[in-house]
Amino acid sequence: MAVGHVPAPGVRDSGASGDPTPRNSTRQVVIASLVGTSIEFYDFYVYATAAVLVFPHLFFPAGDATAATLQSLATFAIAFVARPVGSALFGHFGDRIGRKSTLVASLLTMGISTVVIGLLPGYEQIGIIAPLLLALCRFGQGLGLGGEWGGAALLATENAPPRKRALFGTFPQLGAPIGFFFANGLFLLLSELMDDQAFLSWGWRVPFLVSAVLVVVGLWVRLSMHETPAFSKVVARNERAKVPFAQVFRSDFKALVLGTFIMLATYVLFYLMTVFSLSYGTAETGLGYERSPFLIMLMIGVVFFGLTVPVAGLLADRYGRRPTLMVTTIAIIVFGLLLGPWFGADSTVATLSFLIVGLGLMGMTFGPMGAVLPELFPTAVRYTGASVSYNLASLLGASVAPYIATWLASSHGLGWVGVYLAAMGAITLLALLVSKETKETSIED
After folding, report:
1. CA 105 to CA 177: how far, in whole Å?
2. CB 367 within 8 A of CB 308
3. Eight-state DSSP code of residue 412
4. 24 pairs with which residues across the strands?
5. Closest among 106, 47, 36, 43 to 76, alpha carbons compared
6. pLDDT value for 10
7. What is the pTM of this model?
8. Please, which residues bridge with residue 23 across strands?
9. Organism's domain of life (predicted)?
10. Neighbouring-strand partners of residue 11
11. Helix, strand, or coil (residue 346)
């Protein structure tokens, strides 16, 4: 460290090692990775909830309720087509100009798209233009989230101590249950404070418009960050990839495929436990719950999702990523085979326990991913590689999961939804068996 140099407040000075790179404090890393992903997932889940409760009534022609729900879920799936595009786009700039600037851009893209949804007129006002504009904004949401997760995961893991990478990698993962909890909590509060007519008229717009305030907070937090040490070293050595997307497919294709399928069961499980369960649980042809009681049960389940995320990170740091995920994936397969009789039971206790166990398993499989996917790729293409594999899994798993599950349940029975989940779990288990342990992998290559 140069004579007279004083590290900035909240920055870990690495002068003892001779490295002049400014370091983000643990507090900065936690806040920046957690706040950003919480906002992003809040935006995403606001749409998911509205796609089940509101959009079938407002943005599509009146008629068959199941058809309207399927059309709404189809617009929900558009974001998952956009996410790999966003991962390639933002991944390019994340690997070329840095993690910090790219994370700011992804947050703006997601936030603006969400706010505009809250301002859109419905089908009765502008006809077919309404669902088209809704689909366009949904594409923008997917584009932003496609670049968000990878950058947030790298922000956490590239600033983490070597023996705590999986734990640090859970910071952005906690954004999922936090964002989901607040998105659904706000919908629940609004539905309790106003009647159905007011809620469908204007109340549903409030969660989307609130996103503007949250984005300002997220931008303020992220603009105060320093670049990660790993990326700073790549810049100093002049080793940035010219076209990260092409380099990933050329040099790290196996890691890309493995990362995608390692994430597959995670995505299918989560969107079955949230979007599908809410749709089936509140449908007259399903379990027939009122909206508010089911949302309360779902939020209780999400609490267990949040609690198990850091537990999974600690286990992955102690015992390794593969053992932790393999045991969890086997449990997901068993859970899937029990889904039909468990979720289909005419009992509040059965429904609540189903949501708690399913979302608890979600935390166990989602928690380590913040470390696992970044560890598969070298620094020069890590943003692109981790983001693309994460979002390809979303395209193959999450985008179609609610639609497939709704079709299976209505055409062949609830048990086949569980078979679908178990099959996706088997694919993930196979990918884990083929992959190598990354616990000891250096990420400052």
Report:
1. 23
2. yes
3. T
4. 11
5. 47
6. 41
7. 0.81
8. 12
9. Bacteria
10. 24
11. coil
Q: Count CB neighbours of 5 within 10 A.
A: 9
Bridge partners, residue 12, by sequence: 23
Helices 165-173 and 26-53, axial angle in degrees (round to 10) = 40
Q: d(Cα 223, Cα 225) in Å, to the nearest integer?
A: 6
Specify the CATH class of 24-434 in words.
mainly alpha
Say which DSSP state 12 is in.
E
Structure tokens at 75: 């617009």
CA 138 from centre of chain: 15
Six-digit token pair at 254?
């196996």
What ranges do the domains of the chain cover?
Answer: 24-434
What CA–CA distance (Å, rounded) separates 22 from 232? Answer: 9
Q: What percentage of the chain's residues is helix, strand, coil (to nearest 5)?
A: 80, 0, 20
Residues 6 or more apart in contact with residue 414 via CB below 8 angstroms: 280, 339, 340, 343, 344
Whats the size of the chain, residue-wise?
Answer: 445
Task: Please enumerate, as own/partner, the contacts of 157-161 that have beta carbons within 8 Å and a separation of 24 or more.
Answer: 157/370, 157/371, 157/374, 157/375, 157/443, 158/99, 158/228, 158/229, 158/230, 158/231, 158/374, 158/379, 158/382, 158/443, 158/444, 159/23, 159/24, 159/26, 159/29, 159/228, 159/229, 160/29
pLDDT in tens, 2-59: 333 333 334 444 433 444 556 677 777 788 778 777 877 787 777 777 777 778 878 8
| Residue-wise pLDDT tens digits, 204-237 | 888 888 888 878 887 887 777 777 777 788 888 8
Q: Which two tokens stand for residue 356?
A: 């708690």
The amino acid sitting at 115 is: V
Which residue is it, tokens 């004579």? 3
Secondary structure (3-state) at 17:
helix
Q: How far is CA 440 from CA 327, 371, 430, in A?
A: 20, 11, 22
- For 405, the token pair is 């599950």
pLDDT, the chain, mean: 84
In the Cβ-directed half-sphere of 194, how many Cα atoms lie within 13 Å? 13
* Residue 161, SS3 per DSSP: coil
CB atoms within 10 A of CB 221: 18
Nearest-5° angle of CA 270, CA 405, CA 332?
45
